[in-house]
Amino acid sequence: MKIIVCIKQVPASTEVEIDPITGNLIRDGRNAKMNPYDLYAIETALRIKEFNGAHVATISMGPPSALAVLNESLWMGCDDATIMTDRKFGGADVVATSYTLAEGIKLIGSADLIICGKQTTDGDTAQVGPEIAENLKIPHLSYVDKIIEIKEKSIVVQVDMDSTEEVWEIDYPCLITVNKGIFTPRLPSYKRGKLFKDYEIRQIHFSDMKDQNEAHYGLKGSPTQVERMFPPIKNTDKEIWEDTDKNLALKLSKKLKEMKVV
Amino acid sequence: MAKKGIIVVNKSNVKQELIADYVKSCPFKAIVAKDGAVDVDQSACKICRICAKKYADVFTFQEIEEEKINKDEWVGITVFIEHDGKKIHPVSLELIGKSKELAKVTGHPVYALLFSDDEKKFTDTLLSYGVDKVYSYEHKLLDHFNVEYYVELMADFVSKVKPSTILYGGTSIGRSFAPRVAARLKTGLTADCTILDMKKNTDLVQNRPAFGGNIMAGIICENTRPQMATVRYKIFKMPEKVKPFGVVEKMSCKDIKFKTNMKLVEVKEKPKQIDISEADTIVCIGKPFKTKEQIQMAQEFADLLGAQLACTRPIVEAGAMPAIRQIGLSGRTVSPKLLICLGISGAVQFTAGMKGSEVVFAINNDENAAIFDFVHYGLVGDVFTILPELIKNLKGEKDV
Ligand SMILES: Cc1cc2nc3c(=O)[nH]c(=O)nc-3n(C[C@H](O)[C@H](O)[C@H](O)COP(=O)(O)OP(=O)(O)OC[C@H]3O[C@@H](n4cnc5c(N)ncnc54)[C@H](O)[C@@H]3O)c2cc1C
Q1: Contacts of B4 by beta carbon, 8 Å cutoff, 6+ apart
Q2: Which of A236, A252, B83, B397 is the most buried (most CB within 10 A)?
Q3: pTM (2 decimals)?
Q4: In this predicted complex, what is the ipTM?
């Protein structure tokens, strides 16, 4: 069995850190990390590997710095890793991202199961997984929170819906996105890391793609555009109280009483 | 008008002493400075053009040419109707209400798109909310959501009706189904919009908190149709019922490929969970609440008010409270009569989920905190000294 896990590097914090001396934006390991939801996707794949010896590969599209998260995935227990990186892939929205990843997955070759995290912490759309599935013309289930049975030709999973849990059996090849908490992700192992000392992560660039039409990738392949940016609408009808903490507490309890909430 | 393009750097105009300011001007950290040179990281750049406005000599917007579509061929605002086989999900009705407002700008009709095993269960309700037309696909296999069937049906609908806009509820179903449609039709889809506006030229402006950055983004699909968006439950108001005037148009399932590689085995009801979006009074805590004792204190305060205790995302990430109690873009939308925010900075992703609240209080020791832009009463002070006093006062009042 072959499993491919899609992972992404995301900013570690929402604050911009700038080196006070050089004025450079700090973009080292401290500022970027693996999308936390992807750790659950990797762990799910590794549990399946433990069960049936599946081969687990990770793939990520992003700048060269994303190699860090691919390395982390190898240290956790994955067998292979691929980065898709090219200026031509830059500026992609979900449509272009998922198309590029789907084409990359085809280049790696026939996966039985593709696993994605439920969403990313920087984009939060939860759209890339389902769109990859559509591009590959395979079925998918989002929000899987339990693996019930791993069969030879299919997998039985539980899906977290808004007010119900649904159990589905889905044939390979297929894609699932997994919820936080499906399993507890393991830590990367330094010992295992050493095995990959001479391993070279495969790089896929635009020139390696089968579809050489630039209009399908990156900014050009992205139907959505940001038209304008604006601060959220503020409330101007307000009172600001500045006083000692004790007086503030007193004032607030009076106000709450006045409002009859207590 | 927004055109597609990229930001380019005019290297000769870069002023060394301003490099740090260039970098800071970008809310997406896309401007990179290295060894005295400035570059734009195209993978991070959202083409918001803030840099081009501020430093026009250095950053310019370079247009990319592309073929234009004929927008006149795409007519109608469509709401995908979600149901559980018995009842329509209220978010679909909220979206019908919003669509009717949007349709006033363009004069487009409003459609409800229904997939079901028995349309009679739903059509009267849909018509009573004032849609112009219900497009109904009826088939015995449509008793339950199956994403593979649904994509086939949607592709059929779009090819026959050519709607300008399609809106989906941001539910488990909507968030799984809509992206597949986007990939199939190669069109844009904006997740979790909090404000929708329609332009005269039929472009839907899809506003949502920007990806990262404490700012809102207005997103459009300038050159693809249909344009699509998902909206979470309770972002828009429930519309009033009207005297029905619309019609039901039956769509043929004859050409639909009902082929699937997935099978529903079982549906289990979840134990009833508390739903903070229904609460009248909410106390919401932010990141400074770290210890059990601090959270317990907030709980005690909430109990005194008969309020639900909610939190921001960092609290959920720390594992201190369950995700169902998180307010915001990736949590619940709330609109209580009273909301009290304790130690919350007021990030745009948080405020997106609480703007409908009637009266908002906030305690924050930073007088410049953004949360004070969203309150009716702002208390500048230390929450961990105010809260025990407050509890004491409230308890005292009760005893009297
Ligand atoms: C895609 C995406 C989606 C997101 N979705 C959500 C979401 O749904 N909900 C959400 O909440 N966040 C969300 N976030 C995160 C959001 O951007 C903020 O990081 C988060 O809301 C900050 O939470 P906070 O206000 O509790 O913490 P902070 O921003 O750390 O603010 C803490 C505040 O407490 C004040 N403070 C500290 N000590 C005291 C004290 N002793 N007394 C009084 N005040 C004190 C500080 O002045 C500060 O203003 C999302 C982010 C992204 C990128």
Answers
A1: A219, A220, A225, B63, B64, B66, B222, B223
A2: A252
A3: 0.86
A4: 0.90
Judging contacts by C-beta atoms under 8 Å, the chain B residues touching residue A126 are 175, 179, 191
Residue from A17, A25, A182 whose CB has the most chain B CBs within 10 Å, to mutate = A25
Q: Does A184 touch chain B (CB under 8 A)?
A: no
pLDDT tens, N- to C-terminus, chain B (400 residues): 456 778 889 988 999 999 999 998 888 888 988 888 898 887 778 788 889 999 999 999 888 777 788 999 999 999 999 999 999 999 999 999 999 999 999 999 999 999 999 999 999 999 999 999 999 999 999 999 999 999 999 999 999 999 999 999 999 999 999 999 999 999 999 999 999 999 999 999 999 988 666 788 899 999 999 999 999 999 999 999 999 999 999 999 999 999 999 999 999 998 888 889 989 999 999 999 999 999 999 999 999 999 999 999 999 999 999 999 999 998 999 999 999 999 999 999 999 999 889 999 999 999 999 999 999 999 999 999 999 999 999 988 554 4
DSSP A172: S
- The bridge status of strand B5-9 relative to strand A80-84 is unpaired
Count residue pairs from A and B with Cβ separation < 8 A. 304
The verdict on the CB of residue B312 being under 6 Å from ligand 1 is yes
Both tokens of A26, joined, read: 């700090």
Which residues 35-54 of chain A have a CB within 8 Å of chain B? 36
Q: Is B344 in the pocket of ligand 1 (CB under 6 A)?
A: yes
CA distance B347 to A218: 29
What tokens does A132 get?
């990859």
Q: Are B283 and B312 in contact (CB under 8 A)?
A: no
Domain presence at residue B280: yes
Is residue A235 within 8 A of residue B376, CB to CB? The reply is yes
Same domain flag for B125 and B234 = yes
- Verify whether the Cβ–Cβ distance A262 to B398 is below 8 Å: yes
Q: Which of A139, A239, A257 sits opposite B260 (nearest CB)?
A: A139
CA distance B147 to B177: 6
3.30.565.10, 3.30.420.40, 3.40.50.620, 3.40.50.300: CATH of A2-221: 3.40.50.620
Residues B87 and B206 in one domain: yes
* Contact A163/B at CB under 8 A: yes
Chain A residue numbers with beta carbons less than 8 Å from the beta carbon of B261 are: 138-139, 170-171, 174
